[in-house]
Amino acid sequence: MALGAEHGSDKAILLVSSDDKFVDGTRRFLNGHKVFVARNVSDAQRRLVEETVHLAVLDTSFGTETGVADGGQLLKVDPELPVVLVVDNPEMSVLRAALRVGYKDVVDAPVDRPKMEAMLGLIDEEAQRVVLKEAKTQIGRVVTIMSPKGGAGKTVTAANVGLQLAMWSEPERVVIMDADLQFGDISIVLQIDPVYTIVDAARDLDDLDEDLMRSLLTTHPSGLKVLAAPLEPSLADEVSTQSVVRSIAMLKRMFDYVVIDTAPFLDEPVLSILERSDDVLLVVDMDLPSVKNAKLALDTLKLIKFPFEKIKLVLNRVNSKARLDIGELERSLDLEVQAAVSSDKLVPRAVNEGEPVVSLYPRSRVARDLRAVTRLIVDENVTPNTDSGEGSRKWFR
Ligand SMILES: Nc1ncnc2c1ncn2[C@@H]1O[C@H](COP(=O)(O)OP(=O)(O)OP(=O)(O)O)[C@@H](O)[C@H]1O
Ligand SMILES: [Mg+2]
Prior knowledge:
The chain contains 18 helices and 13 strands. The protein has two domains: 131 residues, 3-Layer(aba) Sandwich (Rossmann fold), CATH 3.40.50; 235 residues, Rossmann fold (3-Layer(aba) Sandwich). The protein is of the alpha/beta class and 397 residues long. Magnesium ion (MG) binds next to helix 8.
Protein backbone atom coordinates (compact mmCIF):
# COMPACT_ATOMS: atom_id res chain seq x y z
CA MET A 1 0.00 0.00 0.00
CA ALA A 2 1.33 3.46 -0.83
CA LEU A 3 2.21 5.41 2.27
CA GLY A 4 0.36 8.41 0.98
CA ALA A 5 -2.82 6.41 0.84
CA GLU A 6 -2.58 5.20 4.44
CA HIS A 7 -1.79 8.46 6.17
CA GLY A 8 -3.47 10.84 3.74
CA SER A 9 -1.49 12.58 1.05
CA ASP A 10 -1.87 16.04 2.41
CA LYS A 11 0.96 16.06 4.93
CA ALA A 12 3.93 18.36 4.70
CA ILE A 13 7.27 16.96 5.81
CA LEU A 14 10.33 19.09 6.45
CA LEU A 15 13.69 17.35 5.95
CA VAL A 16 16.47 19.23 7.69
CA SER A 17 19.66 18.11 6.00
CA SER A 18 22.44 19.30 3.75
CA ASP A 19 23.20 15.74 2.71
CA ASP A 20 21.67 15.02 -0.72
CA LYS A 21 21.96 11.27 -0.18
CA PHE A 22 19.89 11.48 3.01
CA VAL A 23 17.32 13.75 1.36
CA ASP A 24 16.93 11.53 -1.71
CA GLY A 25 16.91 8.34 0.36
CA THR A 26 14.23 9.65 2.70
CA ARG A 27 12.11 11.31 0.05
CA ARG A 28 11.66 7.92 -1.64
CA PHE A 29 9.29 6.92 1.16
CA LEU A 30 7.28 10.12 1.02
CA ASN A 31 5.43 9.70 -2.25
CA GLY A 32 2.21 11.64 -2.24
CA HIS A 33 3.34 14.01 0.52
CA LYS A 34 4.64 17.53 0.22
CA VAL A 35 8.37 17.58 1.04
CA PHE A 36 10.33 20.69 2.03
CA VAL A 37 14.10 20.58 2.38
CA ALA A 38 16.00 22.95 4.68
CA ARG A 39 19.79 22.94 4.59
CA ASN A 40 20.20 24.20 8.14
CA VAL A 41 18.22 25.21 11.22
CA SER A 42 17.64 28.84 10.29
CA ASP A 43 16.46 27.77 6.85
CA ALA A 44 14.10 25.33 8.61
CA GLN A 45 12.79 27.99 10.98
CA ARG A 46 11.97 30.20 8.02
CA ARG A 47 10.01 27.36 6.41
CA LEU A 48 8.04 26.81 9.58
CA VAL A 49 7.03 30.45 9.63
CA GLU A 50 6.02 30.45 5.96
CA GLU A 51 4.39 27.01 5.57
CA THR A 52 2.24 24.57 7.46
CA VAL A 53 4.53 21.65 8.36
CA HIS A 54 3.26 18.43 9.98
CA LEU A 55 6.54 16.64 10.73
CA ALA A 56 10.24 17.56 10.77
CA VAL A 57 12.98 14.96 10.27
CA LEU A 58 16.54 15.87 11.28
CA ASP A 59 19.41 13.99 9.67
CA THR A 60 22.29 12.21 11.41
CA SER A 61 24.40 15.39 11.61
CA PHE A 62 22.13 16.41 14.52
CA GLY A 63 22.92 13.18 16.39
CA THR A 64 24.97 14.75 19.19
CA GLU A 65 23.88 16.57 22.33
CA THR A 66 24.79 19.95 20.73
CA GLY A 67 23.09 18.94 17.50
CA VAL A 68 19.94 18.06 19.42
CA ALA A 69 19.94 21.45 21.16
CA ASP A 70 20.44 23.15 17.81
CA GLY A 71 17.52 21.26 16.23
CA GLY A 72 15.43 22.15 19.27
CA GLN A 73 15.23 25.70 17.89
CA LEU A 74 12.47 24.43 15.58
CA LEU A 75 10.23 23.88 18.60
CA LYS A 76 10.61 27.53 19.54
CA VAL A 77 8.79 28.35 16.30
CA ASP A 78 6.19 25.56 16.60
CA PRO A 79 6.11 23.85 20.03
CA GLU A 80 3.57 21.22 18.84
CA LEU A 81 5.60 20.11 15.81
CA PRO A 82 6.55 16.40 15.89
CA VAL A 83 10.34 16.35 15.41
CA VAL A 84 12.19 13.09 14.74
CA LEU A 85 15.95 12.67 14.82
CA VAL A 86 17.71 10.05 12.69
CA VAL A 87 20.94 8.79 14.30
CA ASP A 88 23.78 6.52 13.25
CA ASN A 89 24.42 5.06 16.70
CA PRO A 90 21.52 5.18 19.09
CA GLU A 91 23.11 6.42 22.34
CA MET A 92 21.16 6.94 25.53
CA SER A 93 22.66 10.40 26.18
CA VAL A 94 21.44 11.64 22.79
CA LEU A 95 18.05 9.98 23.23
CA ARG A 96 17.66 11.57 26.64
CA ALA A 97 18.68 14.99 25.34
CA ALA A 98 16.24 14.67 22.46
CA LEU A 99 13.34 13.81 24.77
CA ARG A 100 14.25 16.60 27.16
CA VAL A 101 14.15 19.09 24.31
CA GLY A 102 10.77 17.73 23.18
CA TYR A 103 11.54 15.60 20.10
CA LYS A 104 8.95 12.92 19.48
CA ASP A 105 11.30 10.09 18.52
CA VAL A 106 14.84 9.01 17.71
CA VAL A 107 15.18 6.53 14.87
CA ASP A 108 18.30 4.64 13.85
CA ALA A 109 19.61 5.14 10.31
CA PRO A 110 18.96 4.29 7.57
CA VAL A 111 15.37 5.35 7.20
CA ASP A 112 13.32 2.62 5.56
CA ARG A 113 9.63 2.27 4.73
CA PRO A 114 8.43 0.89 8.12
CA LYS A 115 10.38 3.55 9.99
CA MET A 116 8.95 6.31 7.82
CA GLU A 117 5.49 4.86 8.32
CA ALA A 118 6.03 5.01 12.09
CA MET A 119 7.19 8.65 11.78
CA LEU A 120 4.12 9.59 9.76
CA GLY A 121 2.04 7.79 12.38
CA LEU A 122 3.32 10.35 14.92
CA ILE A 123 1.34 13.05 13.14
CA ASP A 124 -1.91 11.24 13.89
CA GLU A 125 -0.69 10.21 17.35
CA GLU A 126 0.00 13.83 18.22
CA ALA A 127 -3.53 14.82 17.23
CA GLN A 128 -4.89 11.86 19.21
CA ARG A 129 -2.80 12.71 22.25
CA VAL A 130 -4.47 16.10 22.50
CA VAL A 131 -7.84 14.33 22.63
CA LEU A 132 -6.54 11.75 25.11
CA LYS A 133 -5.17 14.44 27.42
CA GLU A 134 -8.69 15.67 27.85
CA ALA A 135 -10.06 12.18 28.45
CA LYS A 136 -9.99 10.74 31.97
CA THR A 137 -6.75 8.93 32.70
CA GLN A 138 -7.43 5.23 32.66
CA ILE A 139 -5.39 2.70 34.55
CA GLY A 140 -4.53 -0.33 32.45
CA ARG A 141 -5.00 -3.98 33.34
CA VAL A 142 -1.89 -5.98 34.15
CA VAL A 143 -2.04 -9.54 32.86
CA THR A 144 0.82 -11.84 33.84
CA ILE A 145 1.54 -15.19 32.25
CA MET A 146 3.29 -17.54 34.66
CA SER A 147 4.35 -21.14 34.98
CA PRO A 148 6.92 -22.62 37.33
CA LYS A 149 7.86 -25.09 34.59
CA GLY A 150 10.06 -24.18 31.61
CA GLY A 151 8.59 -24.65 28.16
CA ALA A 152 4.97 -24.78 29.33
CA GLY A 153 3.87 -22.25 26.73
CA LYS A 154 4.09 -18.91 28.56
CA THR A 155 5.71 -17.00 25.72
CA VAL A 156 3.36 -18.43 23.10
CA THR A 157 0.42 -17.47 25.33
CA ALA A 158 1.78 -13.98 26.07
CA ALA A 159 2.45 -13.21 22.39
CA ASN A 160 -0.93 -14.49 21.23
CA VAL A 161 -2.93 -12.89 24.04
CA GLY A 162 -1.09 -9.59 23.55
CA LEU A 163 -1.62 -9.56 19.80
CA GLN A 164 -5.25 -10.66 20.12
CA LEU A 165 -5.94 -7.89 22.62
CA ALA A 166 -4.33 -5.46 20.19
CA MET A 167 -6.52 -6.80 17.39
CA TRP A 168 -9.66 -6.45 19.50
CA SER A 169 -8.92 -3.04 20.97
CA GLU A 170 -6.70 -0.21 19.78
CA PRO A 171 -3.33 -1.78 18.93
CA GLU A 172 -1.49 1.26 20.30
CA ARG A 173 -3.08 0.70 23.72
CA VAL A 174 -1.52 -2.73 24.35
CA VAL A 175 2.05 -3.45 25.49
CA ILE A 176 3.87 -6.71 26.12
CA MET A 177 6.62 -6.53 28.72
CA ASP A 178 9.16 -9.32 28.44
CA ALA A 179 10.15 -9.96 32.06
CA ASP A 180 11.95 -13.23 31.32
CA LEU A 181 15.12 -11.30 32.04
CA GLN A 182 17.68 -13.92 31.00
CA PHE A 183 16.09 -15.76 28.13
CA GLY A 184 13.18 -13.59 27.05
CA ASP A 185 12.14 -14.42 23.51
CA ILE A 186 9.05 -12.33 22.84
CA SER A 187 11.06 -10.38 20.25
CA ILE A 188 11.82 -13.57 18.34
CA VAL A 189 8.26 -14.84 18.50
CA LEU A 190 7.01 -11.47 17.18
CA GLN A 191 9.99 -11.03 14.84
CA ILE A 192 10.85 -7.53 16.01
CA ASP A 193 14.28 -6.02 16.35
CA PRO A 194 14.48 -3.92 19.52
CA VAL A 195 17.05 -1.13 19.78
CA TYR A 196 16.28 -0.45 23.46
CA THR A 197 15.23 -2.87 26.18
CA ILE A 198 14.21 -2.99 29.82
CA VAL A 199 17.93 -2.67 30.64
CA ASP A 200 17.82 0.94 29.39
CA ALA A 201 14.79 1.60 31.60
CA ALA A 202 16.71 0.17 34.58
CA ARG A 203 19.84 2.19 33.82
CA ASP A 204 17.83 5.39 33.64
CA LEU A 205 15.44 4.71 36.46
CA ASP A 206 15.83 8.16 38.01
CA ASP A 207 14.92 9.91 34.77
CA LEU A 208 12.30 7.40 33.67
CA ASP A 209 9.13 9.20 32.65
CA GLU A 210 6.43 8.37 30.14
CA ASP A 211 8.21 9.98 27.19
CA LEU A 212 11.45 8.13 27.87
CA MET A 213 9.54 4.86 28.40
CA ARG A 214 7.67 5.35 25.12
CA SER A 215 10.92 5.74 23.24
CA LEU A 216 12.30 2.52 24.74
CA LEU A 217 9.40 0.48 23.33
CA THR A 218 9.54 -1.40 20.04
CA THR A 219 6.52 -1.29 17.75
CA HIS A 220 5.23 -4.48 16.14
CA PRO A 221 3.78 -4.00 12.60
CA SER A 222 0.29 -4.39 14.15
CA GLY A 223 0.90 -1.32 16.34
CA LEU A 224 1.31 -3.44 19.50
CA LYS A 225 4.19 -2.16 21.68
CA VAL A 226 6.88 -4.25 23.34
CA LEU A 227 9.26 -3.55 26.21
CA ALA A 228 11.88 -6.09 25.23
CA ALA A 229 13.95 -8.30 27.52
CA PRO A 230 17.73 -7.77 27.80
CA LEU A 231 19.50 -8.82 24.62
CA GLU A 232 22.00 -10.96 26.57
CA PRO A 233 21.50 -13.07 29.72
CA SER A 234 24.43 -11.33 31.46
CA LEU A 235 22.55 -8.02 31.36
CA ALA A 236 19.69 -9.43 33.45
CA ASP A 237 21.61 -8.53 36.64
CA GLU A 238 21.28 -4.87 35.76
CA VAL A 239 17.50 -5.07 35.93
CA SER A 240 16.56 -4.75 39.59
CA THR A 241 13.16 -5.77 40.91
CA GLN A 242 12.58 -2.10 41.65
CA SER A 243 13.04 -1.19 37.98
CA VAL A 244 10.65 -3.96 36.91
CA VAL A 245 8.06 -2.67 39.38
CA ARG A 246 8.51 0.95 38.32
CA SER A 247 8.21 -0.02 34.65
CA ILE A 248 4.92 -1.81 35.33
CA ALA A 249 3.54 1.19 37.21
CA MET A 250 4.43 3.46 34.31
CA LEU A 251 3.13 1.15 31.57
CA LYS A 252 -0.17 0.82 33.45
CA ARG A 253 -0.69 4.54 33.13
CA MET A 254 0.17 4.52 29.43
CA PHE A 255 -1.73 1.45 28.15
CA ASP A 256 -5.07 -0.30 28.55
CA TYR A 257 -3.40 -3.71 28.78
CA VAL A 258 0.07 -4.63 30.02
CA VAL A 259 0.77 -8.28 29.20
CA ILE A 260 3.82 -9.66 31.04
CA ASP A 261 5.77 -12.76 30.06
CA THR A 262 7.85 -14.23 32.89
CA ALA A 263 10.69 -16.66 33.61
CA PRO A 264 9.85 -20.18 34.80
CA PHE A 265 10.51 -19.48 38.49
CA LEU A 266 8.77 -18.09 41.49
CA ASP A 267 11.61 -15.78 42.49
CA GLU A 268 11.55 -12.24 43.84
CA PRO A 269 10.97 -10.40 40.55
CA VAL A 270 8.16 -12.77 39.52
CA LEU A 271 6.50 -12.51 42.96
CA SER A 272 6.67 -8.71 42.74
CA ILE A 273 5.11 -8.84 39.29
CA LEU A 274 2.34 -11.16 40.51
CA GLU A 275 1.58 -8.78 43.36
CA ARG A 276 0.95 -6.02 40.85
CA SER A 277 -1.15 -8.09 38.46
CA ASP A 278 -4.90 -7.95 37.94
CA ASP A 279 -4.99 -11.32 36.18
CA VAL A 280 -2.56 -14.21 36.37
CA LEU A 281 -2.71 -16.85 33.67
CA LEU A 282 -1.15 -19.96 35.17
CA VAL A 283 -0.12 -22.08 32.20
CA VAL A 284 0.11 -25.78 32.93
CA ASP A 285 1.31 -28.30 30.41
CA MET A 286 -0.40 -31.68 30.18
CA ASP A 287 2.22 -33.69 32.07
CA LEU A 288 2.80 -34.68 35.66
CA PRO A 289 5.94 -32.60 36.36
CA SER A 290 4.04 -29.50 35.21
CA VAL A 291 1.14 -30.30 37.52
CA LYS A 292 3.51 -31.00 40.42
CA ASN A 293 5.33 -27.67 39.91
CA ALA A 294 2.06 -25.78 39.59
CA LYS A 295 0.94 -27.29 42.88
CA LEU A 296 4.16 -26.26 44.63
CA ALA A 297 3.84 -22.73 43.23
CA LEU A 298 0.23 -22.47 44.35
CA ASP A 299 1.21 -23.66 47.83
CA THR A 300 3.76 -20.84 48.01
CA LEU A 301 1.21 -18.31 46.80
CA LYS A 302 -1.23 -19.56 49.43
CA LEU A 303 1.40 -19.02 52.11
CA ILE A 304 1.81 -15.39 51.12
CA LYS A 305 -1.98 -15.01 50.97
CA PHE A 306 -2.04 -14.24 47.27
CA PRO A 307 -5.62 -13.55 46.13
CA PHE A 308 -6.51 -16.74 44.27
CA GLU A 309 -9.44 -15.17 42.41
CA LYS A 310 -6.85 -13.49 40.15
CA ILE A 311 -5.43 -16.83 39.01
CA LYS A 312 -6.84 -18.37 35.87
CA LEU A 313 -5.75 -21.89 35.16
CA VAL A 314 -4.94 -22.47 31.48
CA LEU A 315 -4.12 -25.98 30.28
CA ASN A 316 -1.74 -26.11 27.35
CA ARG A 317 -1.05 -28.77 24.74
CA VAL A 318 -4.28 -30.51 25.53
CA ASN A 319 -4.80 -33.66 23.53
CA SER A 320 -6.54 -36.90 24.10
CA LYS A 321 -3.26 -38.86 24.16
CA ALA A 322 -2.03 -37.26 27.39
CA ARG A 323 -4.42 -39.37 29.49
CA LEU A 324 -4.36 -36.95 32.35
CA ASP A 325 -7.63 -36.76 34.20
CA ILE A 326 -8.83 -33.15 34.26
CA GLY A 327 -11.04 -33.65 37.32
CA GLU A 328 -8.12 -35.09 39.25
CA LEU A 329 -5.88 -32.25 38.10
CA GLU A 330 -8.42 -29.67 39.24
CA ARG A 331 -8.82 -31.37 42.61
CA SER A 332 -5.09 -31.60 43.09
CA LEU A 333 -4.58 -27.90 42.28
CA ASP A 334 -7.81 -26.86 43.94
CA LEU A 335 -8.55 -24.69 40.90
CA GLU A 336 -10.90 -25.02 37.98
CA VAL A 337 -9.55 -25.12 34.45
CA GLN A 338 -10.75 -21.93 32.77
CA ALA A 339 -9.37 -22.46 29.29
CA ALA A 340 -7.53 -25.13 27.38
CA VAL A 341 -5.28 -24.81 24.36
CA SER A 342 -4.91 -27.71 21.93
CA SER A 343 -1.61 -29.16 20.98
CA ASP A 344 -0.98 -28.22 17.38
CA LYS A 345 2.08 -28.22 15.14
CA LEU A 346 0.87 -24.89 13.77
CA VAL A 347 2.15 -23.33 17.02
CA PRO A 348 5.87 -24.09 16.50
CA ARG A 349 5.39 -23.33 12.81
CA ALA A 350 4.01 -19.88 13.67
CA VAL A 351 6.83 -19.35 16.19
CA ASN A 352 9.37 -20.07 13.47
CA GLU A 353 7.56 -17.73 11.07
CA GLY A 354 7.71 -14.95 13.67
CA GLU A 355 3.96 -14.39 13.61
CA PRO A 356 1.61 -15.54 16.37
CA VAL A 357 -0.85 -18.24 15.43
CA VAL A 358 -3.89 -15.97 16.11
CA SER A 359 -2.88 -13.84 13.16
CA LEU A 360 -1.06 -16.39 10.98
CA TYR A 361 -3.67 -19.15 11.22
CA PRO A 362 -6.70 -17.33 12.67
CA ARG A 363 -9.15 -20.03 11.61
CA SER A 364 -7.28 -22.90 13.27
CA ARG A 365 -8.57 -24.67 16.34
CA VAL A 366 -5.57 -23.56 18.40
CA ALA A 367 -6.12 -19.89 17.43
CA ARG A 368 -9.72 -20.22 18.61
CA ASP A 369 -8.47 -21.70 21.88
CA LEU A 370 -6.07 -18.79 22.35
CA ARG A 371 -8.87 -16.33 21.67
CA ALA A 372 -10.84 -18.06 24.42
CA VAL A 373 -7.84 -17.52 26.73
CA THR A 374 -7.79 -13.84 25.78
CA ARG A 375 -11.50 -13.58 26.48
CA LEU A 376 -10.80 -14.53 30.12
CA ILE A 377 -9.24 -11.13 30.63
CA VAL A 378 -11.19 -8.86 28.33
CA ASP A 379 -13.41 -6.42 30.18
CA GLU A 380 -17.12 -6.92 29.90
CA ASN A 381 -17.47 -3.56 28.19
CA VAL A 382 -15.37 -4.68 25.21
CA THR A 383 -17.29 -7.03 22.95
CA PRO A 384 -14.92 -9.08 20.85
CA ASN A 385 -16.17 -10.95 17.81
CA THR A 386 -16.99 -14.27 19.36
CA ASP A 387 -16.33 -17.47 17.51
CA SER A 388 -19.47 -19.31 16.71
CA GLY A 389 -20.34 -22.71 18.09
CA GLU A 390 -18.29 -22.45 21.27
CA GLY A 391 -21.11 -22.17 23.73
CA SER A 392 -20.54 -25.56 25.29
CA ARG A 393 -16.79 -25.86 25.52
CA LYS A 394 -15.33 -29.37 25.58
CA TRP A 395 -11.67 -29.79 26.45
CA PHE A 396 -11.35 -33.06 24.59
CA ARG A 397 -12.77 -33.85 21.22
N1 LIG B 1 -0.32 -25.58 22.18
C1 LIG B 1 0.87 -25.90 21.67
N2 LIG B 1 0.97 -26.81 20.67
C2 LIG B 1 2.16 -27.14 20.14
N3 LIG B 1 3.33 -26.60 20.54
C3 LIG B 1 3.32 -25.69 21.51
C4 LIG B 1 2.09 -25.29 22.14
N4 LIG B 1 2.40 -24.35 23.08
C5 LIG B 1 3.74 -24.20 23.06
N5 LIG B 1 4.29 -24.98 22.13
C6 LIG B 1 5.72 -25.08 21.79
O1 LIG B 1 6.44 -25.31 22.97
C7 LIG B 1 7.65 -24.61 22.98
C8 LIG B 1 7.76 -23.82 24.28
O2 LIG B 1 6.76 -22.82 24.32
P1 LIG B 1 7.05 -21.41 25.00
O3 LIG B 1 8.33 -20.86 24.52
O4 LIG B 1 5.84 -20.60 24.87
O5 LIG B 1 7.20 -21.89 26.51
P2 LIG B 1 7.68 -21.03 27.77
O6 LIG B 1 6.83 -21.47 28.90
O7 LIG B 1 7.69 -19.59 27.43
O8 LIG B 1 9.16 -21.54 27.96
P3 LIG B 1 10.32 -20.90 28.88
O9 LIG B 1 9.98 -21.30 30.27
O10 LIG B 1 11.56 -21.52 28.38
O11 LIG B 1 10.25 -19.43 28.68
C9 LIG B 1 7.65 -23.69 21.76
O12 LIG B 1 8.54 -24.23 20.83
C10 LIG B 1 6.23 -23.76 21.23
O13 LIG B 1 6.21 -23.75 19.85
MG1 LIG C 1 9.22 -18.16 27.56
